[in-house]
Design a protein that fits this description.
By secondary structure, this protein is mainly beta. 10% of the residues lie in helices and 46% in strands. The strands form four sheets. Strands 18-19-16-15-14-23-12-26-29 form a nine-stranded antiparallel β-sheet. Strands 13, 17, 20, 21, 22, 24, 25, 27 and 28 form a nine-stranded antiparallel β-sheet that branches. The chain starts with a helix and ends in an 18-residue tail after the last strand.
Amino acid sequence: MKSSKITIIFYLALMFSYLLVSCSEEEGMKMEEPPQMSVHVPAKGNSWFLDNVGTSQMKSSDFDGFSWTSKSSVLRTYFRLEKAGEVHIGIKATVATGTSTIKATFQNESKDIEIKDTNHGIVYIGAFTVPTAGYYYIDLQGIDRGNTQFASIEYIALGGEATSSGVHFSNEEYFYWGRRGPSVHLAYQKAEGTADVQWFYNEVTVPEGNDVVGSYFMANGFGEGYFGMQVNSSSERRILFSVWSPYQTDDPGSIPEDQRVKLIAKGNQTTINDFGGEGSGGQSYLVFNWEAGNTYRFLLKGEPAGDNKTDYTAYFFDPKQSKWHFIAQWRRPMISTYLTGLHSFLENFDTATGPMGRMVNYNNQWVYDTNSTWHEMTRARFTADATARDKARLDYAGGYKSGENGFYLRNCGFFNETSTVDTYHTRPALGIAPDIDFDALSSN
């Protein structure tokens, strides 16, 4: 009987010990569970593949979510936190079969994580501390893969104190425009006493290192078109002058004949096309290898041509040749006007270069009016597009600040300086009107 009691007591003690261990293990498992990460940053709209990270030769390319095979490519995803503090980071990704190993790096801290074909949830990367509000990114680099692709990345998951005041990124509505980055503008204010504007003069300087592929540094914008310089590829640059048709369409082939913009004349080296996609009209451009660091001059004329039509004529000055190049003259129907809505803008038209920053300076703006008088324009209103206003991207700036060469515009690159839109800025007056012999301007 005594032996039986001892046996019962032994088994009770053993069961109690097992319960203690089980509870302890459950407690430990709960401690290892990832924290809540309710903010999901879509990879498709906020990520780029980067090569040669950290060098001046860094290149970026679009990320489509499915073609990740190279170990040398780093997938970088950007987001903006509005508060300092702890941020929890995870990744929602899948692999078709097997297991992939990926190195995740945030703020110079790296961790290898595994993506398994049996895992359909969020893989927790870790908790990190960010010292200030602003833009941050996480890098993912493939180490090993069990299939042809490293992984299909759906989103980066975020949580923690640093997300409590908001996180900004491009959602599905802005997957295209957010990848291009925000466009920024300067609307010039005419001086008091200026009559109808016949000529618009502007000077443009792209600082060295800011001539990124996909950039359009638009110099002389007006109510019916635009005129500026582009970086079209690694081997081609253009001076572009376009005039919109009054017919509202993105398909130039659908424009009725009586509403088409007609070419009156063009320079010998100028190429002529229709354009579409963002309105439609007549396009003219000169392939010209302009250089960052040099200042270029733009001159635009606009005046009524009779029969409810207006002629627009564009000239570009090459400082190396000390020569004005005639680009083209276009006649637009259904309007009779001089130049209105004078402005400049900076945009990126290549989604692959959305993470690469660029800047431009605009200086010495003048208009020549129908009273044959030059007037300097020293005041401009800074504005931005819907991508900026809806806070899909906040890497934009512009206006005037001490030390800059006149007004400036800056966008892309995920920098933390953000200028207030719809604000007015004044640059110092230079006071010396352009010396231009209008009669001597060549049309060849």
